[in-house]
Amino acid sequence: MAAQAKRAQHTANAKAAAKKASNRAPSFPASSSAMSKRRAQAASAALQRTESLPLYLRTVTTPLGPFSIYVDAEGAVRCCRWQRSAPGDAAALRREAQEVCAAMQSRCYKSALVAVAGVWADGAAGASEAPGGGAVALLRNYFNPPTPKAGQPEELERLLLQVPIVYPPTTVFTAQAWSTLRHTVPSGEIISYKGLGVRVHKALKLPASTAVAPRAIGVAMGANPIPVIVPCHRVLSSSNSLHGYGLGLRFKTWLLRHEQADVAADKLRVGEEENAVSTVASRRS
């Protein structure tokens, strides 16, 4: 009961903060410049938002570093990614959470005020009472199987399918692409962009005279805000080449190895080499 009361209080505080922010009248200098107009339009759009979406950041320890999940008050995952800030830097982690929430509001939840309601690193005090405990436990066992049997593909898939998620507002096609991927391509298996397009075409009952272009599937995968749980890492090119993964090829390669996917060792090695080259280039720039 105490945990439920705390969660309710967290949600109430976040909604109150969002409402206060939305009711604060912005002041801009009287000017006809394009910049002032854009600012005024953005402020007007903010005032029109009537919903609030408080999100709670939870992190999961993995062999590749902390994995961040953003959950709602009910514990459903709305977004996830590998943590970019240094582990242990609480201030940097909160700033990162604010940036992620701002990006989600801009890209997905334009009619809602997305705000950070709480930040809990893995094992932090109070984390056990925060929303998202179920998702954290499932993902912890996915990334760190306690026994060899628990690391088998079918067991890993069972864990991922139990993680509660909520898709953001999107097109029917994109939502179907995510759902088809999650429910028809299990852990240990891979599929091509073209192959997934065929399944999406069938699921949407599109005319036989039409086809879903692999490029359209690629766009849908690139827009996926819940990677790993919605396993876009299992989608490869027709030649099984590893490329085009938003989180980075190092993560895609590790996930495929972790799930014991049937991908040739040389393909995985090339993926790792390409990632190393891109990492060095980004550091030099």
From TrEMBL:
- Which Gene Ontology cellular component terms are annotated? nucleoplasm
Is Transferase given among the entry's keywords?
yes
Domain spans labelled Methylated-DNA-[protein]-cysteine S-methyltransferase DNA binding: 173-260
Give the matching Gene3D superfamilies: Winged helix-like DNA-binding domain superfamily/Winged helix DNA-binding domain
Give the molecular function GO annotations: methylated-DNA-[protein]-cysteine S-methyltransferase activity
Matches recorded under InterPro entries = MethylDNA_cys_MeTrfase_AS (IPR001497), MethylDNA_cys_MeTrfase_DNA-bd (IPR014048), MethylDNA_cys_MeTrfase_DNAb (IPR036217), WH-like_DNA-bd_sf (IPR036388)
Renumbered to this chain, the Low complexity biased-composition regions fall at 23-34
Which keywords, in A-to-Z order, does the entry hold? DNA damage, DNA repair, Methyltransferase, Transferase
Q: What is the name of this protein?
A: Methylated-DNA--protein-cysteine methyltransferase
Organism name: Leishmania enriettii
